[in-house]
Specification:
By secondary structure, this protein is mainly alpha-helical. Helix content is about 55%, strand content about 10%.
Length: about 160
C-alpha cells in the first residue's frame, strides 16, 4: 500500500463521519482492526468491509498507522499518527488566526494573503493555549486603551 502523493487536507479526511469516529476512538489509544470494525459497524450500520476501506484510506493518507497485533497475530493494531494531528492542529491554528483578523474587530482587516505560519511549539487548544490567547488579547486591548488615553491627554481631552 503506497501513501498518497499529496496528503489530503485533514478536514477532507475527517469529513466522513465513519473516519472521524475512527480517529476519535484511536485518540484514546491503540485498538485492533476487529475492535474498530465491531464498534463502527454497530454505531454506523456499515459492513466490516466498509470499515476496512475507511481504515485503508486513513492509512494511505497518513492519519493512522498499523502493525501486526501482538495479542492477535491475525489482526492489525491501529494507532493515530502524531504527524496527522500536527497537520490538523496547523489547520485549526490557521482558522484561529483568521478568526482573530476578521472584519469588524477594532482596527484590523481581513488578510488578503495567507499569513506566514509560526513554527512555535503547539499548546493544547483547550486549556493553557486558550488562557494564553485570552491574556494576549487582554494585554493588546490594554495597550490600545493606554495609547488612546495618552493621545487624549496630549490633545487636551479628558480621559
Amino acid at each position: 500500500m503506497t501513501k498518497a502523493p499529496h496528503p489530503a487536507h485533514p478536514f477532507a479526511i475527517l469529513a466522513d463521519p465513519v473516519r472521524r469516529r475512527v480517529v476519535e476512538i484511536l485518540a484514546v489509544g491503540e485498538h485492533s482492526a476487529g475492535t474498530l470494525c465491531d464498534v463502527i459497524s454497530s454505531e454506523h450500520g456499515v459492513s466490516r468491509t466498509a470499515v476496512s476501506h475507511h481504515l485503508r484510506t486513513l492509512r494511505r493518507h497518513g492519519a493512522v498507522s498499523s502493525a501486526v497485533d501482538p495479542v492477535e497475530p491475525r489482526s492489525r493494531a491501529y494507532r493515530l499518527s502524531a504527524d496527522f494531528l500536527a497537520r490538523l492542529d496547523e489547520e485549526v491554528e490557521h482558522l484561529f488566526r483568521l478568526w482573530d483578523q476578521r472584519y469588524g474587530t477594532a482596527e484590523r482587516r481581513a488578510p488578503l494573503v495567507d499569513p506566514p505560519r509560526s513554527r512555535r511549539a503547539r499548546l493544547h487548544r483547550f486549556g493553557v493555549a486558550a488562557e494564553h490567547r485570552a491574556a494576549e488579547r487582554a494585554a493588546e486591548w490594554g495597550r490600545g486603551a493606554a495609547l488612546a488615553a495618552d493621545r487624549d491627554r496630549t490633545v487636551g481631552r479628558p480621559a
